[in-house]
Amino acid sequence: MALRTPLVVGNWKMNGLKASAAELGRMIEGYGPELRWKVQMAVCPPATLIQTFCVVALGSRIWIGAQDCNAQQSGAFTGDISAEMIADCGGGLVIVGHSERRTIYAETDAEARAKAEAARRAGLVAVLCIGETEAERLDGRAIAVIDSQLSGSVPDGATGSNLVLAYEPVWAIGSGRTPTTAEIAEVHGHIRKWLDRRFGKEGERIRILYGGSVKPANAVEILAIDNVDGALVGGASLKAADFLAIAATYA
Ligand SMILES: O=C[C@H](O)COP(=O)(O)O
């Protein structure tokens, strides 16, 4: 058995209504045995659809998750949901530290770390996002930024069963632009070494996904890069045909 099963996660962001369950249904239909054994697929719809999607996906082996959580278990946090609530709906994972949360809501590394710890407390897998801005890359600071985000947001005691990292260069998200294969290989190789140093043998089990304008047209090239263990997909995860085509890279 491979050390790290490839994982393709769809982040629907603030898109989708109840009728979108039909799109999930098409994903389930297309996630046949030839794909199931080779790649794990997951969909993170908006919070309003988590419960519905969990029911639709029951028995399908597609994981359903959330896009964020509060680090606390419960309390006076209007508008928020906790990791325990996601687990209670049947969710299996939660994205934390996404750059849109970091930028729009000024979330810090410490908050992303607390959310990853909350995910573990609730028995969820945290998909922890890190990545540099365009200005940071142009300044030659991409690796330094990644290092600082890793040190600030990866929790102690992370394992291959409770943490997945997602490298998402901020400038590649929703822009149609991607780093070169050499640039992706450099960052993923760097993260892999960092995990090895921090967690030893267990670090080898932690998957590192690439995210940022992954589409069926570039998935083969990106997913073949060393230390890329799957993808975190935004726009192209909204349509079953595109999302399945990306996952089918592993078939
Ligand atoms: O979480 C997903 C990422 O932000 C990537 O989004 P994108 O595939 O639309 O560029």
From TrEMBL:
It catalyses: D-glyceraldehyde 3-phosphate = dihydroxyacetone phosphate; L-erythrulose 1-phosphate = D-erythrulose 4-phosphate. GO terms for molecular function: triose-phosphate isomerase activity. Substrate binds at residues 11-13, 174, 213, 234-235. The active site is at 98 (electrophile), 168 (proton acceptor). One of its GO terms (biological process) is glycerol catabolic process. SUPFAM superfamilies: Triosephosphate isomerase (TIM). Belongs to the triosephosphate isomerase family. Pfam families: TIM. NCBIfam families: tim (TIGR00419). Involved in the gluconeogenesis. Catalyzes stereospecifically the conversion of dihydroxyacetone phosphate (DHAP) to D-glyceraldehyde-3-phosphate (G3P). InterPro entries: Aldolase_TIM, TIM_sf, TrioseP_Isoase_bac/euk, Triosephosphate_isomerase, Triosephosphate_isomerase_AS. GO terms for cellular component: cytosol. Gene3D superfamilies: Aldolase class I. PANTHER family: TRIOSEPHOSPHATE ISOMERASE. Homodimer. It is found in: Cytoplasm. PROSITE patterns: TIM_1, TIM_2. This is Triosephosphate isomerase. Its EC number is 5.3.1.1. Pathway: Carbohydrate degradation; glycolysis; D-glyceraldehyde 3-phosphate from glycerone phosphate: step 1/1; Carbohydrate metabolism; erythritol degradation; Carbohydrate biosynthesis; gluconeogenesis. Keywords: Cytoplasm, Gluconeogenesis, Glycolysis, Isomerase. It comes from Kaistia soli DSM 19436. Its main location: cytoplasm.
